[in-house]
Write a structure and sequence with these properties.
This protein is of the alpha+beta class. The protein is built from four helices and eight strands.
């Protein structure tokens, strides 16, 4: 399977708008995994997320920016694990795009200027897909 097919399959899962998993690392080096709501995808392969500004994940990302995201189809027939780097976004234009690009953000935050709203930028560096190759063998691609 070629690299672009793997990347496109992963992007399709991100665009599907389902809940997904974010994994960070805490100050003791222990992985911390949590469910997240919808994400906003921009090219080349940047995933934006909304989070509470005071949440533990924010400090974890600042100390240990390497993280993973995991997306899946509703029936779990396909699973994408994305490895990359997270950073907190502070510029107003990007915060607005993220807020507007994530359905349901208004359910939790009053707007992109809400001090409780944080925008997270995830730059994908590697994709591993399960369920796109014959026999459920994982396939991967570096970006």
């Amino acid at each position: 399977m070629d690299k672009q097919t793997i990347i496109d399959a992963a992007k399709d899962l991100v665009r599907a708008g389902r809940s997904f998993v974010l994994a960070t690392v805490d100050s003791d080096g222990v992985p911390q995994v949590r469910w997240m709501g919808a994400a906003h995808l921009e090219e080349p392969f940047v995933v934006y997320m909304a989070a509470g500004a005071a949440s533990r994940k924010m400090g974890q990302m600042e100390s240990h920016p390497k993280s993973q995201l995991m997306f899946q189809t509703e029936d779990y027939a396909q699973v994408a694990t994305l490895t990359g780097m997270c950073e907190v976004v502070t510029d107003a234009d990007t915060r607005r795009r993220v807020f507007e690009g994530i359905p349901g953000a208004a359910q939790y935050f009053s707007g992109p200027d809400d001090p409780n709203f944080a925008a997270i930028k995830f730059r994908c560096q590697r994709v591993e897909m399960l369920g796109v190759a014959e026999g459920m063998a994982p396939v991967s691609a570096d970006l």
